[in-house]
Amino acid sequence: MNQFKDSMLKLIAETSSNLPPDVRRAIERAIKSETPNTQAALALKTIAINIDMAQESIAPICQDTGMPTFEIKTPAGANQIIMEKDIDEAIAEATKQGKLRPNSVDSLTGKNSGNNLGPGTPVVHFHQWEDQNEIEVKLLLKGGGCENKNIQYSVPCELPNLGRADRNIDGIRKCIMHAVWQAQGHGCSIGAIGVGIGGDRTTGYSLAKQQLFRSLDDINPNPELAKLENYILENANKLGIGTMGFGGKETLIGCKIGTYNRLPASFFVSVAYDCWAFRRLGVVLDAKTGAVKRWLYKDDTSSRKMATETKLPLTGREISLTTPLSEEAVRNLKVGDIVLLNGTMHTGRDSLHHHLISHDSPVDLHGGAIYHCGPVALKKDEKWFMNAAGPTTSGREEPYQADVIKKFGVRAVIGKGGMGAKTLAALKENGAVYLNAIGGAAQYYTKCITEVTGVDFLEFGIPEAMWHITVKDFPAIVTMDAHGNSLHADVEKASAQELGKFAEPVKI
CB neighbours (10 Å) of residue 43? Predict the structure, then answer.
């Protein structure tokens, strides 16, 4: 199979840069359904533009290219050892080319391998089938932000706003509705969920993730589960969480459910949450050569443009700001304002925030902006550039952010999903603001970066390093202001009230 490795490299690059048609159709339906001229509608427009940009440049749709997960069916006797070696080499090459972000980190030392290889990465599952002439390979790239919103329930249990969930279909319904609610905007809604009913703790999660390999357009062969899938898809969109958690009509684009038998003492409902950047493709290969015979999850619409614009139309109400920011300028902002940032920004994620608590910053952050971003960064002619640079989930920095704001005089924090009460209090006390960028829109925001001026802490790994970048007209929405207001807290409270309406038993 001398073409197998090249076929895997093609599959990885295409999966990273081009959404499958079923996901595209679901996003298009959401765009048409959402209320025009709202924050959610603006987010969906940005998403559509970003999808087109990624496809045209064959670059990552989202900078978090996640944990590559392969599901492979082979004829009996296929040499899986060689195939796995070829997959590893293709993963390393795709990382070198910037199709994947280096995401494999030693859990004890925190050291990034730099090539996406290491114990447990990538994930490869082999299965035999009767076909002796073909090999089927499916690939899922599921990022860390949505992975963190996976959740598992052991029923019976008590659920906030919903009451008791029992060991029956109604209890399962409650668990799934709660799973959508608890994700809010942290997992880059509009999202899709795979659900595994039964199994043990390990196989339940595995079954849930396997459901994400199903097409969003398919119909569950189990009539009872088909009805439940339709119920969840319809009613989850009544919670009012909306795209990016901004509030709105569209929250979920897919729900797929599978079942395993279980132990008498255990009843698990496992939910795997995936973001709108639902990267899942597959190929069927010639078993002798490894050459691609046909693509899975593709049709004639795979290359059709998603957006009607190539950039966001400006209304004239946007507020243009240049760093360093003054306290007066920041305190004049309020929740809902759209800001166009210019000047210098500094990226910072988990490792940097932890470091800054007890160390000085290598650059002056007074009046500055910290961007929660782990980019795909490449070097050409000895100069760094960004190949993908969208926001990461900000909630992980909640234990540190307030202290960093106060210690260094930071005026703006940019990320996605919002932050908690401790950060909100620090924004008010110190005259700072939280700006929500559109999660997953890695190509859109990359085009706003005019230069990479430097980098510190590269030893933390490319995603965790402190990158110094110059931006022009970088758009973001004020969702937490210096007056104690938080759109995220408001949406979570309002959606909790809506969730409570589903507490009574329902016959599906």
Answer: 30
Say how many C-beta atoms besides its own lie within 10 A of residue 79's C-beta. Answer: 11
Residue corresponding to tokens 């004829």: 75
Distance CA 426, CA 316 (A): 30
The strand pairing partners of 15, in sequence order, are none
**Chain CA centroid to CA 377, Å:** 18
Three-state SS for 191? strand
Is pLDDT of 302 > 90?
A: no
H-run or E-run covering 352: helix 350-358
Instruction: Select from 477, 481, 471 the least CA-distant residue to 345.
Output: 471
Angle at 393 between CA 388 and CA 395, to 5 degrees: 160
> 398-436, pLDDT tens digit by residue?
999 999 999 999 999 999 999 999 999 999 999 999 999
Tokens encoding 206: 């595995």
Beta strand pairing status for 151-154 and 292-296?
unpaired
Q: Which residue has the tokens 């070696």?
A: 85
- Look-up: residue for tokens 């691609």? 292
Tell me the C-alpha distance between 244 and 275, whole Å: 10
